[in-house]
Every structure is written in C-alpha cells, then in structure tokens.
Specification:
Helix content: 40-55%
Largest sheet: 6 strands, antiparallel
Number of domains: 4
Order of helices and strands: HHHEEEHEHHEEHHEHEEHEEHHEE
Structural class: alpha+beta
Shape: elongated
CATH class of the largest domain: Alpha Beta
Radius of gyration: 43 Å
Bound molecules: adenosine-5'-triphosphate, magnesium ion
Strand content: 15-25%
Number of helices: 12
Oligomer: single chain
Distance between the termini: 114 Å
Length: 503
C-alpha cells in the first residue's frame, strides 16, 4: 500500500527468515505487508478491514491481529455507548428540580433501556423510610404512586443497598408468590408490570434512594442492562440528589416568601391599627380632657345638670375608648394566630335570646326590634366569649345599618353534624362590589350607620377570624336593597361535652 513504510515483517527479528524456504519467505513478506497495511488502517480508525491470514505462515500473528481488532471493536462500542450515556446524563442534568430531572430521564433513557414505567423513591425519616417521590408510566393506571411509603428495614431493598448493584426481577408475579407481604410488589403487579430493574442511588457514599425501571414484559432485563445501569448509577445518583436538594431549597424559599408576605401584611395591619388608634382615640381623649377641665375650673358655677352631663360624657367616651382598645387588641391577637379558646357547653337557644334582649334594649332609641325567630334546644360545645363576640358584631351591624323601626331576626338550625346561625336584617343589603372587601380590616363600605353609630370597619374582620377559630365558616346572602342575611356555622355537637352539660 502506498505510503506504508517497509520496515520488515511484523514481529520478525533480524536473521529469522534465513532458516526458512525461499518460497515461504516471499509469502511471509506478502502477509507481513498485508498485516502492516491493516495495522495502518486500524491506526486510522478503520476497524472493518478483514485479514485473510489464518492459513498463511504468519497465521498465529494474523489470529493475534484479529483478536486485537475484535478488542478494538468492542472498546470502540463501549466508548460509543459511554459517550451516549454521557450525553443522556448531561441532558438529564439540565433539569433543575427533581421532577424535571426525572421527566428528562423518562424521555431520554429509552435508547439505553427498555421500560414502560420509571419510579423514583427517596429515603426519608433519617434513612428509615422509602418514600415514593415520583412516578411516570405509559400505562393507564398508577397504583404505587407518590406518597407511598414503607420501612426500609426488613425489605429486600436493603439487600440492593448492601450489594450496591442494580437488581433484576424478571418475574414479579413469581416474586410476589414468594413474598406475599410485599405491598409494593402487589401494587405494581396490579398495574400490569411484570419485570423490574432496581438501581440503588448512592450520592457521596450515602444511600439516597432508588430508581425503579419496570416493564410489562416478563424477562425484560438482562445482565447487560444491569451493567449499563451500574455504569451510570453514580452520575444518576448525584443528579437525582441535586434535583432533590434544589427542589427542597425551592420549597423552603417559597415557604419563607409566604411567611415574609404574611409578616409584611401583618406589619401593614399593625401600622394601620396604630394610625387608627391614634386617630380614633384622639377625639374622645380631647373630649374627656375638656370636660374634666371645665369641671375642675367651673365646678361651683355649673348647674347640677351640666355637671352630670359632663360626667356622663366622660363615662361614655371612656366606654367607647375601652371598646375600641378591646377591638384593637383582638385584631392583633387574632392576626398573630394567638386566638385563645376556652370551650364550654352553650345552650344556643338561650344564648340567642339573651343576645336579642341585650341588643333590643340598646336599639330602643331607634325603635328597632331584635327577635329570635327559631332555634332548637340543645348544647353546642364552643368558646362562649368568642361566640358572643361573633353574634354581637353581626347583630350590632344589623341594627346599625338598617333603617330605624325595622326588625332584626336571629335563627339557629341544626344541619347534619353542625349548627347554622343566621342574623337577618331589613337594611340596604350588601352590593356586589362591597362583598369583595366585606371581611377585610377597615372595610367601611357603602352602607352607612343610620343612627349616628360609630363605624371603624373592624367588626367583620374580627368576626370571620373568630368563626374560623371555632372551626366554622361565615358568609352572607343578600340581594342589594332587600336586607342582608349573615350565616355562620359551628361544628361538632354533643361529642366531648362535660357530664351534665347543656340540656
Ligand atoms: N348588615 C349589614 N348591612 C349592610 N352593610 C353592612 C352590614 N354589616 C356590615 N356592613 C358593611 O360592611 C362594613 C364593614 O363592617 P364591619 O362590621 O367590619 O365594620 P363597622 O361596623 O363599620 O365597624 P366596627 O364593627 O368596627 O365598629 C360596614 O362599614 C358596612 O358598610
Ligand atoms: Mg361592625
């Protein structure tokens, strides 16, 4: 061959040819030339060239060449395979979160392994529990899905970690017959899976979980598949672990951001409360100061009736400030999630009657009637102080925003396992726009007090928090112009009541 240097027969030492027959020497030269030419081809990367040397005098050498060529071929095959796996793992590694990484694996790994389903379980609970974290399947049903968890100890998966090698189970029905207690095998067989290849994931020397490749075919996996998986198990482990950590960090970050947002809004509420308090306390304090100064300076000159009027003013303003302070304290307590509850048995019908009497009396100047329409007897276990706060807020609103001379109706009903309580009025109702903000802090909406009452806009925000703290819900039914009916529920009836409680 052109360009091939003739530097003597391959493997022949100087003087060796002298002992051979003359014809044999020529044949050997030709064979050696062919061998050298083949060697050059191999050097250039062409491994396909056949050598017809088996019957030549250099047959043994030729056979050696063939052997080397075979070795080179299988090395190249292995190299290509590794390159392909490397490309796959690099691509899979591009996923940031664990779900992206595993989705990438499911899409990309088909050229390397057969499967109809891949599952990934991670060790949780300090390595004691195997928890299914992710599953993707071509099948219609997934029974062993995310959330399934089982102890590692005592399972055959322990053995997979011990050997550190992928495990082939090519007859899962047979395996289930041998290990009928294996719930996970039962589930996966019921999905239609018949064989599985389990790869242990060990990152930085620490077991982190498993990848389960599975197929609907019995006998789908060979030793070659297991070896191939062995070769990339280390890379996959690190990638999966990275995905897990990034996912965990992302979840933590989201939780911190949520907390942060809550703190910011809490802070805003606090600032507004402070502003409100300063503003709303200023007037009564001013009025009290003025009345006290007048009483001090002109006590003797003031007629008895005037003195009494000033004193009554001081008492009323003080009451108002106390009520406002109570509300503010309540809001801050509730907002910080510090709602303290002292449960007791409450006879709801009596409770509503007392509320109606109390508010009816206060509504006398407005000639508004407050009545209990209906309420069955029976105890409810709840916090009486919070319940009173809820009912007082709703009834005082009903009186406050309804025209004088109207009627406010209270009603209690037992529905299913809960109590439903309604406060209904004949006022302007709630407009659609107002509904959105109704339960927010400082929601002073379109309805205005009809008898000069104070309106801070905190009552319903406090009420809703209190209802939630008691385990109930609150909402309003209202057709604007035709009154409002506020409903709230209280859960749980007689269970857990102290002996002799209620009626
Ligand atoms: N029964 C009702 N009918 C019509 N509008 C109502 C009724 N109840 C509440 N609203 C409207 O919703 C707003 C918010 O009510 P909320 O009880 O939170 O505050 P408020 O009564 O104005 O003040 P506070 O209760 O703090 O003294 C009210 O200002 C009013 O516009
Ligand atoms: Mg109110």
């Amino acid at each position: 061959m052109e360009g091939v240097q003739d530097d003597g027969p391959v493997g022949q030492r100087p003087g060796e040819s002298g002992s051979r027959a003359p014809g044999a020497g020529r044949r050997e030269d030709a064979s050696a030339d062919a061998l050298r030419a083949a060697a050059r081809e191999v050097e250039k990367g062409d491994l396909s060239r056949a050598l017809e040397l088996a019957s030549s005098p250099l047959g043994a050498l030729g056979a050696l060449g063939e052997g080397l060529r075979g070795l080179a071929r299988s090395l190249e095959e292995r190299y290509r395979e590794l390159q392909q796996l490397d490309r796959l793992t690099t691509h899979i590694n591009e996923g940031l979160l664990l779900d992206d990484v595993l989705d990438g694996l499911f899409t990309d790994f088909r050229s390397a392994l057969p499967y109809d389903r891949i599952g990934c379980s991670l060790l949780t609970d300090d390595g004691r529990t195997v928890s299914s974290r992710w599953v993707r399947s071509d099948l219609d049903v997934v029974k062993l899905g995310r959330g399934y968890a089982a102890p590692l100890a005592g399972s055959t998966l322990e053995e997979v970690f011990r050997t550190g090698r992928p495990r082939i189970l090519n007859d899962l029905e047979g395996y289930l017959a041998a290990y009928p207690q294996s719930q996970s095998t039962r589930l996966i067989v019921s999905e239609g899976i018949r064989s599985s290849l389990t790869c242990p994931l060990v990152a930085n020397g620490v077991p982190v979980g498993f990848l389960f490749f599975s197929s609907v075919r019995r006998g789908a996996y060979t030793e070659e598949h297991a070896q191939l998986l062995s070769r990339v198990a280390g890379q996959l482990s690190v990638i999966v672990e990275k995905g897990r950590m990034v996912s965990e960090l992302a979840a933590q970050k989201a939780a911190i951001e949520r907390q942060n947002a809550e703190l910011v809004s809490l802070n805003e509420v606090k600032s507004r409360l402070l502003g409100m308090a300063a503003h709303d306390l200023r007037n009564p304090i001013g009025a009290i100061g003025m009345a006290a100064t007048l009483l001090l300076e002109e006590f003797d000159d003031l007629p008895e009736a005037e003195r009494r009027k000033f004193l009554a003013d001081i008492r009323d303003q003080t009451r108002h400030m106390l009520a406002l302070l109570d509300d503010l304290l309540d809001v801050s307590e509730v907002e910080e999630g510090r709602v303290s509850l002292s449960p007791a048995a409450v006879a709801l019908d009596r409770f509503l009657l007392e509320a109606a009497d109390r508010h009816g009396l206060m509504a006398t100047p407005k000639k508004t009637r407050v009545v209990v329409e209906s309420c069955p007897p029976g105890p409810v276990r709840t916090d009486p102080r919070r319940l009173r706060q809820i009912v007082d807020n709703l009834v005082s609103n009903a009186v406050k925003f309804s025209p004088p001379g109207s009627t406010v109706r209270l009603r209690g009903e037992r529905r299913g396992g809960a109590w439903w309580i309604a406060v209904e009025d004949e006022g302007p109702g709630i407009t659609l726009e107002d509904r959105v903000r109704l339960f927010e802090h400082f929601a002073r909406l379109s309805a205005q007090p009809t008898g000069g009452e104070k309106s801070v806009g905190l009552g319903l925000a406090i009420t809703r928090r209190a209802v939630h703290a008691l385990g109930g819900e609150i909402w309003v039914d209202s057709e604007p112009g035709h009154g409002a009916r506020f409903w709230f529920t209280l859960p749980g009836l007689e269970e857990g009541l102290p002996p002799g409680a209620g009626r």
